[in-house]
Amino acid sequence: MEKDVVIIGAGPAGIFTALEMLKKGSKSNIIIVEKGKAVEDRRCPKGKTGQCVSCKPYCHITTGFSGAGAFSDGKLSLSYEVGGDLPNLIGAEKAQETIHYTDRIYLEFGADTHIEGLGNTEEVKEIRKRAIQAGLKLVDCPIRHLGTEKAQTLYYDIEQYLLEKGVELLFGYECTDLILDGETCRGVRVRNAGNELEILAKHTIIATGRRGADWLESLCAEHNIAHQPGTVDIGVRVEVRNEVMETVNRVLYESKLVGYPRPFKNKVRTFCQNPGGFVSQENYDNDLAVVNGHSYKELKSDNTNLAILCSHNFSYPFNQPIAYAQKVGELTNMLGAGHILVQRFGDILDGKRTWPKELAFSNVRPSLPDAVAGDITAAMPYRSMINIINFIQAMDQVVPGFASTETLLYSPELKFYSNRVKMDGDFNTNIAGLHCLGDSSGWTRGLMMASVMGVLMGRKLAGDD
Ligand SMILES: Cc1cc2nc3c(=O)[nH]c(=O)nc-3n(C[C@H](O)[C@H](O)[C@H](O)COP(=O)(O)OP(=O)(O)OC[C@H]3O[C@@H](n4cnc5c(N)ncnc54)[C@H](O)[C@@H]3O)c2cc1C
What we know:
alpha+beta, 2 domains, FAD/NAD(P)-binding domain
């Protein structure tokens, strides 16, 4: 099969590449190869079974049209300071302009016009003052919240638009390799259960998301695609009652706080805050169970959850950050007999595990019922654990009650963005015709920034028509 552009992965990075090419009037033949299903066919069985059944061959939460975006909370971060390091590659101003442009596309496809985190100046000032006192930085970030259920409708409309405009969507096919001719990429090899195909194209875009990050890392090693080991984030998902987070939830919706706690002074930050939300589980292909969180527009819980993540960078002689984080996750899963572990903050300080009956003593009830009470400290590296404890105690000065005994910590919360592919500002790798986008490229870590990278790629390709 021969095409002008082949895109691997139908997450926001991949679909916004095609969308922007169409918007700019491109006449190119575009194919998107996606190993999962169309968005309307994606189902997470947990709704019926009540617990994660580790779907094979892949998890429907992260795989299929719109990628990890479909079942995500759909929080679009509208600041260039949030969502990854893309601004370091293209410049902060261009990143911010493209965020506004991309946000308008989301609005065209029906996103809620309301923006969280604007106004309330006096209350924001007060929160910032407390953050300063606690040694934390408050990052301003307006948020447009799609909500998990609305995100699926919105991405369905984008899917239909792409189909109407002639973009070919090849579902159920997994890309296995690149077709290289010396230093030039000529296309890809893809396969489904019984079929193998070669797709030749002038431009190959790899946008395989977090789940495709280790696959891309192996491609880089095999084909000498210039890259560098990047950061990996190890942390926990924290859950407290809504009453504790009430002010921050109302004023900011999402508090983006960053700190460098003693003694290690590594970057520690809050991420993906879900007021009235639910803690959730994702399963990776290698059976790794990791924790995440989301919130619906209508259905609300009594709790707020958010991630606290510590960034880890390694130096010589170690260069396998993804494998490191996976080992931490595997050890935690082992202790939880394959389940997510949950522990009360007070028990961590007391040096004891949490027993299931003790969870019932608290005001906060776990919103992930199949999490197992236990001891996350038995699997968490010392440096990460100390970072998390010290950060939670600093957060308590901003949000009184955050560091209470009953605060729940779920583990493992891991973010694999490492293996940063070296590219120029037009997303050209050292292999001609090969471009890497979104979370798997190591340059983004969120819906908006991945979409922005797609928009800029689409513009560039349309300009080359
Ligand atoms: C539960 C959850 C909640 C989240 N909430 C938010 C949020 O509120 N706000 C936010 O900004 N971000 C959120 N995120 C993160 C956000 O979803 C991702 O940052 C974003 O989707 C990345 O986009 P992407 O296009 O790079 O990759 P992805 O969305 O991961 O898409 C990659 C696609 O590539 C496909 N693929 C992978 N390998 C192959 C292969 N070899 N062949 C073919 N196809 C392949 C996958 O099936 C997938 O569909 C959340 C993520 C999760 C899992």
